[in-house]
Amino acid sequence: MRNPKIPDCLSAIYLNPDRDANASHKCGHNVTKEGGLKKRLIAGLLVLPLFAVFSFLVLAQIPALWFVLLFWAIAVTIGLFVVKAVHARALDGVAVVIALTALLACSLWCCISYFPKLLADRLNHFTRESAPSFALQPVSGGSAPTAWKPGKILVMDFFATWCVPCKAELPELQAAYSDLNDKSDIQFVLIGSDVGGDTPERVRTFAKKQSITVPLAFDPGCKVRGKFGTLGLPSIIVIDRTGRVRLVRQGYNPAETTFRRDFVRFLETL
Q1: 213-222, pLDDT tens digit by residue?
Q2: Domain that holds residue 187
Q3: DSSP string spanning the chain?
Q4: Interval 235-254: pLDDT, tens
Q5: Pair 245, 138 in one domain
């Protein structure tokens, strides 16, 4: 009786041992071919979800990162080539090393240079538009600026206590505030709102737990934030000494490793 786990070609050889001597070789080739196809299928099933998530979630926000998909395709191709070559005991070590080195070099360049610059350009919008009039509700007492004053640079950071990117950005903002604390003409204010259930008391408690010393204010109904356009969280608005909006920054990404340094330098040039 034929064992269903044994391929047809092997079963035929077992039942007919006098068959062509090349049958065994052909059978092994077929089994190997089927195994290779199965591995490619598995690799495709593993990679496709990543492609889909990256395409719909990341590329929708940052289309310039499209070439990352090309990197992934190249990496998968090299990986399949290495697996196949090792299995066939015919690995061309030099070619693989060159390919992997080139891919690694491109990846490092993107991570160290291209991505941070791309993210900075994507997050930061520089302008010279006149700032609208507004008034904030103070949370941390009289030290918090509630409106722009002529001759002063005002840095406003809109955030929420439940916002994960906001929490990641706060240490950078606090550090920039500390770096410029001796400059009386540069004012900082951290602004919460009632979006998501935040209250002035909750904002005050949150800042205390996080050791944030940046002056606090509140924007009921997001009325002030709305005057600057529909902004996500966190959002930084910088108004210069003449009352013009010089920077609108939306979002935060830890890959932008030079954010604090570049932000401080930018404020010092205004």
Answers
A1: 999 999 999 9
A2: 125-269
A3: ---TTS-HHHHHHHH-TTS-TTHHHHHHHHHHHHHHHHHHHHHHHHHHHHHHHIIIIITTT-GGGGHHHHHHHHHHHHHHHHHHHHHHT---HHHHHHHHHHHHHHHHHIIIIIHHHHHHHHHEEEEEEEPPP--PEESSGGGS--S--TT-EEEEEE--TT-HHHHHHHHHHHHHHHHTTT-TTEEEEEEEESGGG--HHHHHHHHHHTT--S-EEEEGGGHHHHHT-S--SSEEEEE-TTSEEEEEEE---TT-TTHHHHHHHHHHH-
A4: 999 999 999 999 999 888 88
A5: yes
